[in-house]
Structure to design on (1229 residues):
């Protein structure tokens, strides 16, 4: 049972890693002027909800399977994702707003956030992998 | 207003630069005389008669300059008048490095120093003339001289006034150009000493400039060099002794050139170490001779020689701040002198609690950057391009320490009376950063130039070698592109993604019951009818109309129809265009039908009972109609949109107005923003006219204009009968709106020197990529602001440059690029940063930031941030700059008005609390903060108060035979009001004429045209045109104030018992209101925080 949980978590985590990389690539494309703000933001906003869900699922799964440590590790990031999504002002076009993204260093902070998440997910990935291997062996 | 620039532009197209006349004369003056002059100094003993060798003379110049330097401060005095013609002196530099490379300690330095003046000075001349009245230009070379002298004169009131007058008058007419002109000139007077210092540092940037001219001639004729061995020696001296001084020397040389007398005197000068006094005298006199306008008084000042510095300082207290630049300077002789008196003046801390009368009696001018005068003369007009800190801090740490925002305020498309236009097949730009060539680049030699933004070395293209202005080959540094900080290029086809679009105007009218009630349609249609022929455009101009209530009505204006045909689309969920081809029609070919429509339109809906408004679908339809071409949509809306996409709900809760919490400044839907971005992508701009009695959620509606680079107009409680004064306002502003210049499918890019980066943009546009602003339409009344940070420290840089390039399609279908370049010095000391602070620009930028803050956080956050900005900067000043801790609230002289302006911002409609400001009104003011150029923003924030019951012609301006009185500006405090006076408050978009109870009978009868105070009508908004001198003066003054701005300020006559008295008193910034502090209380509050 436990191994199933971790296999699922691993897959989910991979997806989140890819998503983070995708965010980073798209944002850096914007930074380098390869795409314009409008298309960049509409691309990214599409993936904000899947990211929130993907991460929430793992977190809940950990809670259900009573992995307290991993649950607590994931909780802050999941909370932040949800908070960020809820707090989008009514006039904005999503977490990434093309009219704001070049202002007040938003692009940089988005980039930084994506980097941190990438690191976090990599950490989780190896943790899940370790737990899975130790379980199986 | 818009047209003149365009027209002028047209002529020049053929040959390129407009400046022809200008440049020619100035060059001629500067250069030809210089030849002889230079020559003689060069080889005084040997070849005095030999004047023909123009080239040789240059080296002579060098000598002269050298001399000057030695003489030190006294000498500098001479320079100011002379300086403008350094052009030729540049060349000396060339020979120096080449002839004596080994001996030179730093050949580069020398050349650079020498090199500076040439390009710069000549350019400067022409450049500044633009600002002046056109009249002065045709005059040719003499004119330019005169003008210049005049400038100097005006700067030095004591000595020069007498002579100055004639030229001075030239300057005034050009209202915008005038003031800056004076500034720049003022500076020359005072600047010389510091100037020398900045110059040397400039090497990296500009040094090459010298060489090109130099390099050419000297090389060609080495023999001459040989001819004058003594001269080479002197050269050596100069080079070795002072690299730093070389630059000033050059400018001195220019002086010499100007006057023939000097040439003879030059013999004296030629010797390496003449007695300082003698040459001085000579120089002065010569100058005086050649320019009769120079008053004798001027000469008097110079003789003192070394001590001369001080007098100059005294004379120009204003200019004083420019002097202070120890960090930059290498010139040890002059620097300390300059420092003593001048530095103190600029840096003199002001105890705000004690000095009550700090408000200047004239409009505050932008500070002049502390640059070499020759560069400064080339610099961009501060009305177009302004930086909050005219001394750029070298590192981000220094900037953080100063606690002042760093940013630019731009007014790039301002109507200009003089604008050089260049037509050329290749536009010279840096190959790596794409910067346009500008006056602040440096020429390494004739074939290469170094970009001043990224420092890449670029080749000078072949075409650029030929100067169309002087018709000389091989002078790339004299091309108009390198002589003007503001220039317009005709763009070749590479700058077009598609053929230039025709001007397309679409008008969208709200015709619901509510709209018809207000009666606006009559006014708008009538104004449109009157101005149909004045719409900017050409034979391709297209026009169309849409009206809407709960359905959308299109008007087919097909040729051959006897009358316009209305097509109604009632499906507002999925809007479609019923007949794509005849809805937008050519204005000229269908004029009759269009006029017909405009005449009938107001009557068509008079019986309409439809109260719904489908603004969203109407905008979608308009967008669909416009998207193939791009253009301008003008929307007139009178109520909250209620059906279809983009319907809004009322969010204003009147009882919450007073609290700063929970007011809805953010848009409630992203519909308008998305649509605006779609529009922006298709080069469509939407201008919104909101004429509404009730709440219409401007916060949401405004997005449609904000992100499509449109503009917002708001007429609160517009009604044709109940509010007739608004009708006049709408008429006047609509006329300006319809007839002003317009640029289509524009983009603007703002570049700055490597190390600086822009991180936030303010204004109406969409930031398409990091530094590219997408402006579907650009109009001359829009201002923009950007915030910057110092990413990499600017070590080794003496100056930084900023360039804005606006690429647009004119209404004539030409693709044009308007380029502005500004150059500012870099400083390392905190005190210098404060010295160069531009308090108006800082206030403007802070206002923009505060708007952002109140939208993203809350209004009270924004207010706190404003107050903190003052506290932080003043306490930083107190702790880091002031060595002696004095009691009181000390502020640097440059920031003495900072607390006052911030207090004014706090009391402005956008940020005030505690009064019944309507939400829409507040948001409209915020839109204005974001979109107005700085001049108007300052006026709206801190109105000007004049006493007008005793206007005299003393100090009046004369424009076109009109005498415009210039009363002093008073502080905004009731204590300045006297019951027996009448006062005019000019608050930008509104004016109040306050009549005191015991106001002189003569004013009441002769200006207001009523028998006594009691019979002044309650809601008087016009002054009768009477035949009395008082009436004429008052009316010309008011209309002169009105003419200067693109909107129409309503004039309210306010008596003691008027309902408007509270609005008038609200603008008394320095007084206490029920919810806001008085100025003095505010200062005490700040002092408390600062001294903590």
């Amino acid at each position: 049972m436990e191994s199933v949980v971790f296999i699922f978590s691993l897959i989910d985590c991979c997806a989140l890693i890819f998503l983070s990389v995708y965010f980073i690539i798209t944002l850096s494309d914007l930074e380098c002027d390869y795409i314009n703000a409008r298309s960049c933001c509409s691309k990214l906003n599409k993936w904000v909800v899947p990211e929130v869900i993907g991460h929430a699922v793992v977190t809940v799964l950990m809670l259900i399977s009573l992995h307290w440590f991993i649950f607590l590790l994931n909780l802050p990031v999941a909370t932040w994702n949800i908070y960020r999504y809820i707090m989008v002002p009514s006039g904005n076009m999503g977490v990434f707003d093309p009219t704001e993204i070049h202002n007040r260093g938003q692009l940089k902070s988005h980039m930084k956030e994506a980097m941190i998440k990438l690191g976090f997910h990599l950490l989780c990935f190896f943790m899940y992998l370790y737990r899975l291997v130790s379980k199986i062996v | 207003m818009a047209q003149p620039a365009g027209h002028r532009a047209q002529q020049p197209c053929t040959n390129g630069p407009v400046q022809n006349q200008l440049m020619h004369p100035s060059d001629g003056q500067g250069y030809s005389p210089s030849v002889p002059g230079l020559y003689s100094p060069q080889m005084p003993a040997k070849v005095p008669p030999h004047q023909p060798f123009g080239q040789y003379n240059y080296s002579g110049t060098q000598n002269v300059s050298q001399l000057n330097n030695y003489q030190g401060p006294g000498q500098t005095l001479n320079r100011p008048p002379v300086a403008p013609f350094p052009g030729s002196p540049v060349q000396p530099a060339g020979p120096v490095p080449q002839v004596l490379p080994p001996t030179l300690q730093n050949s580069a330095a020398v050349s650079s120093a020498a090199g500076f003046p040439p390009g710069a000075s000549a350019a400067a001349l022409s450049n500044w003339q633009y600002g002046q009245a056109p009249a002065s230009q045709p005059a040719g070379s003499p004119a330019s001289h005169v003008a210049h002298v005049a400038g100097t004169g005006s700067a030095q009131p004591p000595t020069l006034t007498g002579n100055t007058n004639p030229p001075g008058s030239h300057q005034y007419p050009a209202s915008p150009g005038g003031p800056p002109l004076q500034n720049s000139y003022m500076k020359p007077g005072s600047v010389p000493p510091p100037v020398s210092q900045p110059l040397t540092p400039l090497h990296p940037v500009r040094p090459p400039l010298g060489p090109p001219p130099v390099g050419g001639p000297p090389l060609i004729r080495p023999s001459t060099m040989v001819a004058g061995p003594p001269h080479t020696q002197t050269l050596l001296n100069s080079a070795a002794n002072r690299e730093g001084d070389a630059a000033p020397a050059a400018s001195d040389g220019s002086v010499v050139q100007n006057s023939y007398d000097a040439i003879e005197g030059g013999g004296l000068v030629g010797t390496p170490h003449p007695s300082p006094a003698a040459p001085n005298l000579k120089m002065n006199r010569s100058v005086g001779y050649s320019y009769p306008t120079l008053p004798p008084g001027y000469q008097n000042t110079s003789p003192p020689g070394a001590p001369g510095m001080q007098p100059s300082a005294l004379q120009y207290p204003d200019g004083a701040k420019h002097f202070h630049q120890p960090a930059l300077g290498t010139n040890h002789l002059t620097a300390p002198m300059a420092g003593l008196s001048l530095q103190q003046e600029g840096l003199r801390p002001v105890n705000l609690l004690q000095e009550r009368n700090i408000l200047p009696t004239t409009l505050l001018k932008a500070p002049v950057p502390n640059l070499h005068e020759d560069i400064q003369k080339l610099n961009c007009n501060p009305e177009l391009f302004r930086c909050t800190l005219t001394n750029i801090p070298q590192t981000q740490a220094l900037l953080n320490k100063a606690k002042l925002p760093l940013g630019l305020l731009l007014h790039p498309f301002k109507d200009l009376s003089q604008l050089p236009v260049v037509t050329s097949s290749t536009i010279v730009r840096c190959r790596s950063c794409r910067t346009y060539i500008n006056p602040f680049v440096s020429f390494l030699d004739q074939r290469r130039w170094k970009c001043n933004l990224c420092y890449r070395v670029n080749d000078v293209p072949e075409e650029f070698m030929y100067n169309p202005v002087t018709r000389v080959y091989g002078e790339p540094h004299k091309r108009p592109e390198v002589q003007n900080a503001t220039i317009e290029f005709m763009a070749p086809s590479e700058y077009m993604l598609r053929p230039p679009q025709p001007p397309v105007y679409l008008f969208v009218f709200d015709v619901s019951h509510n709209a018809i009630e207000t009666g606006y349609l009559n006014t708008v249609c009538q104004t449109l009818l009157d101005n149909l022929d004045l719409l900017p455009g050409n034979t391709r101009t297209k026009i169309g109309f849409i009206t809407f209530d709960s359905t959308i009505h299109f008007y087919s204006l097909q040729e051959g129809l006897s009358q316009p045909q209305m097509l109604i689309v009632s499906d507002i969920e999925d809007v479609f265009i019923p007949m794509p081809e005849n809805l937008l029609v050519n204005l000229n070919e269908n004029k009759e039908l269009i006029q017909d429509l405009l005449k009938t339109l107001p009557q068509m809906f008079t019986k309409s009972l439809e109260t719904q408004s489908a603004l969203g679908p109407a905008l979608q339809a308009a967008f669909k109609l416009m998207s193939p071409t791009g253009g301008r949509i003008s929307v007139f809306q009178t109520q909250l949109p209620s059906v279809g996409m983009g319907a809004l709900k009322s969010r204003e809760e009147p009882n919450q107005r007073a609290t700063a919490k929970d007011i809805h400044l953010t848009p409630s839907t992203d519909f308008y923003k998305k649509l605006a971005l779609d529009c922006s992508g298709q080069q469509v701009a939407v201008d919104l006219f909101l004429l509404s009695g009730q709440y219409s959620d401007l916060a949401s509606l405004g997005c449609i204009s904000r992100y499509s680079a449109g503009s917002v107009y708001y007429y609160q409680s517009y009604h044709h009968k109940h509010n007739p004064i608004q009708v006049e306002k709408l008429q006047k502003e609509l006329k300006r709106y319809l007839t002003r210049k317009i640029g289509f499918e524009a983009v603007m890019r703002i570049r700055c020197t490597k190390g600086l980066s822009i991180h936030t943009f303010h204004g109406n546009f969409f930031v398409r990529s990091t530094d590219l602003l997408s402006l579907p339409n650009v109009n001359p009344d829009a201002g923009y602001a950007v915030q910057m940070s110092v990413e990499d420290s600017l070590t080794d840089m003496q100056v930084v440059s900023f360039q804005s390039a606006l690429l647009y399609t004119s209404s004539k279908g030409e693709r044009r690029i308007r380029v502005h370049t500004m150059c500012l010095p870099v400083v390392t000391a905190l005190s210098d940063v404060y010295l160069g602070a531009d308090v108006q620009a800082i206030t403007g930028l802070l206002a923009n930031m505060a708007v952002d803050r109140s939208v993203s956080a809350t209004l009270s956050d924004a207010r706190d941030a404003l107050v903190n900005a003052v506290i932080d900067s003043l306490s930083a000043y107190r702790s880091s700059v002031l060595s002696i801790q004095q009691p009181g609230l000390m502020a640097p002289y440059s920031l003495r008005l900072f607390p006052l302006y911030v207090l004014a911002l706090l009391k402005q409609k956008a940020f005030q609390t505690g009064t019944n400001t309507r939400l829409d009104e507040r948001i409209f003011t915020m839109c204005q903060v974001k979109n107005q150029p700085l001049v108007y923003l300052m006026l709206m924030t801190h109105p000007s108060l004049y006493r007008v019951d005793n206007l005299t012609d003393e100090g009046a301006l004369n424009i076109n035979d009109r005498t415009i009185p210039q009363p002093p500006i008073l502080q905004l405090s009731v204590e300045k009001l006297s019951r027996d006076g009448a006062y005019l408050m000019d608050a930008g978009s509104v004016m109040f004429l306050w009549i005191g109870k015991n106001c002189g009978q003569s004013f009441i009868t002769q200006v207001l045209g009523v028998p006594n105070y009691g019979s002044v009508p309650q809601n008087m908004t016009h002054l009768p045109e009477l035949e009395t001198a008082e009436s004429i003066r008052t009316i010309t003054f008011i209309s002169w104030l009105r003419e200067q701005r693109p909107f129409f300020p309503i004039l309210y006559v306010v008596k003691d018992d008027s309902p408007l008295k509270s609005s008038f008193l609200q603008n008394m910034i320095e007084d206490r209101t029920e919810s806001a502090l008085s100025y003095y209380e505010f200062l005490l509050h700040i002092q408390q925080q600062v001294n903590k």
